[in-house]
Amino acid sequence: MQSLILTTTTRLLAALLLMFSVYALLRGHNLPGGGFIGGLIGATAFILYTIATSVDEAQAALRIDPSNLAMAGLGVAALGGIGAAFAGQPFFTGQWLFLFRDGDSYVPLSTVLVFDIGVYMAVFGGILTLVFALEQEI
Fold this sequence. Notes:
The protein is mainly alpha-helical. It is 67% helix and 7% strand. Helix 1 (4-27) runs antiparallel to helix 2 and helix 4 (66-82) packs antiparallel against helix 5 (111-135).
């Protein structure tokens, strides 16, 4: 039996959890947080949505197979490590590119962020693959 109150509240809470997971991801390469905890928070949003509705509705809302997302995340994380090879440094050495805007202000881009995004995708997809498999009806 589905509760209208639970379903409505879950949609709002899931949106907030997804925004917070992106925040944790983006602040993680400079401060505590990062791809792992961001992926766990994001997966929690869909787990809560699965409990409130069903596995089929949660998979429809995700719009991508979570196992494919996990595999793509592994590839993105590996790309973050390979970036150092182009600079002639050891695997997974952080590389930064500073894009200048006006004078002294700049936007730093790093391979660390690329690695964190890959970890986020791998954890998000891996956890949801496990949860959806456990929730499937036999």
